[in-house]
Amino acid sequence: MSDVTDFRGLGLRDELLAVLTDLGYEAPTPIQQESIPQMLTGSDLLGQAATGTGKTAAFALPLLNRLPQQDRGKLPTALVLVPTRELCIQVSSAIHRYGRAFDARTLPIYGGQPIGRQISTLKRGTDIVIGTPGRVLDHLNRRTLDLSNVATVVLDEADEMLDMGFAEDLDSILEQLPPQRQTVLFSATMPDRIRRIADRHLSDPITIEIGGKQQLDADRPKITQRSYLVPRAHKVAALGRLIDAESPEAALIFCRTRDEVDQLAEALNGRGYRAASLHGGMDQRQRSRIMAQLRNRNAELLVATDVAARGLDISHLSHVINFDVPSSPESYTHRIGRVGRGGKEGVALTLAEPREQRQLKFIQRITKQKIENSRVPSSADLRARWLDLTEEAVRDSAASPSEDSVYKAVLDNLSVDLDSDQIALAAIQIAHDALSPEIKGEDIPDLSEQWDEPRREGKGKQRHDRGKSRKDQSANSKRNRKGKDPRKVQRLFVSAGRNTGLRPQDLVGAIANETGLSGAEIGAIRISDRHATVEVPSQDAQRVIAALNKTRLKGNRVKVRVDRKPDYAHKGSRKRS
Ligand code: AMP
Question: In angstroms, what is the span from residue 404 Cα to ligand 1's centroid?
Fold first, then answer.
């Protein structure tokens, strides 16, 4: 890995550097350090990176860097292909944010949005198109998207696109691009089928893999590591719950950017914690003041960016908390190595949003550390834990009673009109109130059931296997039995089958493209000669029906409705198919 630690060393234009400073980015993440200079040379690139590594900026900044400042034509110079509608919107708004210094025109195109609006924006002119494969192909077929000027194409989350059955769509889009273009492929995993796509469409690519050996020093074995799956909107509440449950002596909480540091410190202080913040925008005097606060125990939480926390030595640090999944295994190792020093025990906690799970798994694999997938304690768990602590404190105190006679005098006074149970209960209650934090009864969704099952990398996954009709049907139904609650799944009937050339991946692709459901949310698919069934989450069933009734499958209009046949009827039809 190169040793550039500053965005200025990467070869980006000053306007972009100014935007990054504004956004509070202090240093490039490892994937950015590696990819940006390479992409700027125009080479093809094959990068292993998941969400959470900073890969969007890793490809977006070079794309923007190359945009002419003036006289940009109407045709896009870059195309970014992404698997889902959510990612499409997310990537498009990230590129728009990074490119605001020179009014970069970005356009997300995905199924489910009126195509007319996309067509009129395309006509007005755009610089970077971000699209899902199905919708991009749709535009190409209608000749409403002209890719003849595209100099760079990026395949983002390529493994997800293959999982969702977009392999053929990708081939056909890539074949319609100018042959002299630059092709960049990012994927969280690198199974053979990704390498095959790379062999077909990339020419002499630079390969970037972030990771290497990132094991902790052998003398730091005493770090307990846990992770929690939390939706973004509930992260601050979950963090509060964890702090209350763990009652750290001192905790270092890592955020990605300056703004996030300031916002989180403010939110924690607003909730009654004593949190200080530290980031690269602070001068030495502010830094010293904050360090003194920690040393004097006037603050027990320090919220910081990686850059600002470099070289900090807090001797009584008991916890490191990653408010987001770190951008690389190296960063994870570096962060958590702040605790467990000098033979002391330490705790490292990581909050992960559902979309960051792959990055967390990657970190776990590379660092060879056991990170336990855990559940955020509920308010009832917390109450129970603090009652235990109160009980422990009372027992400890009873084991070595105070010699001070003033307490005995108070007891004698109380005993005149109260019995011993009354006195003990009241004293326990007072002790408990004094010891325990105020427990907020906020609702934090429990996502612990949603920790991903381990992926079978390299062999092709079940969703990918959908392409081969018979085998995949049993694979799909197995997945469904294992992973889904049958009450929450609705089976839909589709009036097209093998006779129209329909394959499972066509259904997955159409549903994902038109409704934004991810491949993982789509359940068992059965295809017989003249019709097909597909299982989708019940709450999305009407949306899927409406969307599929409006679109074409393999070029044909189809009728889609709730399937009314009992399950056993399908078991029969599966055998025949
Ligand atoms: P991504 O992996 O592209 O989804 O990015 C994950 C998050 O990291 C996003 O919220 C970005 O805004 C943020 N991010 C990307 N690069 C950096 C950086 N160099 N410093 C701080 N935050 C970053």
Answer: 58
**Fold match, 221-378 / 483-562:** no
57 CA distance to ligand 1 centroid (A)? 7
Ligand 1 centre distance from Cα of residue 61 (Å): 12
CATH number of 7-214: 3.40.50.300
CA 114 to mean position of chain CA atoms? 28
CATH class as words, domain 221-378: alpha beta
- What's the gap in Å between 25 CA and the centre of ligand 1? 8
Average pLDDT, the chain: 86
Crossing angle (nearest 10°) for helices 504-515 and 167-175: 70
Got the DSSP string for 523-558? --EEE-SS-EEEEEEGGGHHHHHHHHHHSEETTEE-
Q: Give the Cα separation of 214 and 467 in Å (integer).
A: 37
CATH number given to 483-562: 3.30.70.330
Amino acid (one-letter) located at 412: D
Residues near ligand 1 (Cβ within 6 A): 25, 28-29, 32, 51-57, 256-257
User: Checking phi first, is residue 353 left (phi over 0); if not, alpha (psi -120 to 50) or beta?
Assistant: beta
8 A C-beta contact, residue 214 and residue 331: no
Enter the pTM of the model: 0.73
CA of 307 to the centre of ligand 1 (A): 14
Q: Whose CA is nearest to atom 20 of ligand 1?
A: 25
- State the closest ligand 1 atom to the C-alpha of 52, by its place in the atom list counted from 1: 2
Which protein residue's CA is at the shortest distance from atom 9 of ligand 1?
54
Strand ranges for 236-313 from DSSP E? 251-254, 275-278, 301-304
Q: How confident is the model at residue 476 (pLDDT cuts 50, 70, 90)?
A: very low
The residues spanned by each domain of the chain are 7-214, 221-378, 380-435, 483-562
pLDDT level of residue 217 (50, 70, 90 thresholds): low
